[in-house]
Request: fold
Amino acid sequence: MSKKFYITTPIYYPSASPHLGHAYCTTMADIIARGKRLRGFDTYFLTGLDEHGEKIEDNAKAAGVTPQQFVDNVATKFLSLWDTMKISYDDFIRTTQPRHVQTVQKIFSRFVENNDVYLSSYKGWYCVHEESYWTDTQVVGENHLCPECGRPCEEKEEPAYFFRCNKYVDGLLKFYDEHPNFITPVGRKTEMVNNFIKPGLNDLCVTRTSFDWGIPVKEAPGHVIYVWLDALTNYITALGYLQDDDSRFQNYWMDPDCEIVHLIGADITRFHTIYWPMFLRALGLREPSRVFVHGLMMMKDGKMSKSKGNVIPVPPLVERFGVDAVRYYLCREIPFGQDGQFTPEQFVDRLNTDLANNFGNLVNRTISMIIKYFDGVIPAYQGELNALDAALKETAEKTIRSYEVLNDDLKVTDAYAAVMELVNAANKYIEDSAPWALAKDPTKKEELASCMSHLANVIFLSGTLLSPILVTKIPEMYDQLGVPVEMRNYEAATHFGSLGGVTVKKGNPLFPRLDVKTEVQFIVDLMNAPKEKAAA
Ligand code: MSP
Reply:
């Protein structure tokens, strides 16, 4: 039976158009999901939108439309971005869908029945932007600024239901101890324990009465369910939890051997690592296996934001450089788990170095040589003839192992860096083997054949390992290399030497070299376009 893997992204607020920062998380989740599918895992990949809350209600009012019209409009932008980025999600949940609304109401009723929530009143500092209440000690300075986003909070008092965190906090700490990988990178766990749990965790306010755009509480007219309780449960409502057809929920969530991974940005760690496990406990359900906190995609002047005018719109970037290039950049340039900074220079440089000079060039050179020396037919693999062959094959096999181990440990950037090292090694192998010299000596025909077959097989392997990122170019590469359709899979590619006797076909370079000056200017103009539009 194949191993199971369930991966989710945060569900985004459809409060504005999506940008490269949003695309970052979803693209990484897609690369991970495709990587698992490639290796035969039973994989399910969920993304979606978090459509309730006061902020959405305010934005809709400002735009002069109903909240539903507002979110429907922004939803089309997200869907179109995921289409552009070739995101292979299995489900796209929107929290206004009846399947979600009804289930969240059932979940809330369970909390009421089990005495996990109680009615009281809430007074605190509310940040509309973060949809979050803060205590007197958490707000910053005299103006009571939100500790997360720095915007002023407003003081609010309203009747509300509270979730009994105290009931679950000891269990949570025990769970952390028993599952040291639950929060990664680990520094994030220390932050949660020291900043939120140790100072004493207050019960969480889980309903609101001051606005309407939320899921109504059946037990208490006038109350809507707090947007974070509503949002977090998407990870199970999408699978069919408490619904007529809950087969996906049974298959993934209820299988203790299924690895469940939530990818999130650092700003929402508290909700995913403290409250979410508690809600699950209250429902008698297992916790996710891992909450992986990725870094932020920053610009030179800080976080990407519309107000700063430093957002990178994704569609023109993809149109110019191709979706594979943008996906590759996101995965390879920003170490997964750390913050990364976007600069046009590094973007162009990364694509030139890795894709054009390293990988693209290896494919091009090898295919040209096979055409020149063997009339285009890849010689059958005959084992390793010399030390150079043996070393290359050994590197290839080591790479397969690292790729699997690193990917399984979510060290995704490192996993793909390892593949690029193999590609580098193959380029060096060409220099060391000097096939052009072998070709001049009729007694070296066998060595020349071995050299070509080693190269073709390394390309077959490395291209396949890169296929979760390079979703459009690897099929092209398979065509150029003459890989039969039935061999375009992980098993054949990792069986070193399986490719031979087929005819290559020269095609366009997979990744043409970019002119640095022109392309950097193109990106700078893209970044400036919104400012110019605003000025006009
Ligand atoms: N709706 C909540 C999440 C609920 S999940 C049950 C939310 N939405 S959000 O749209 O504000 O943010 C969603 C995710 O996008 C967060 O993980 C956030 O870190 C991420 N990012 C937003 N801008 C980003 C960058 N510039 N770079 C990387 N990730 C970014 O919070």
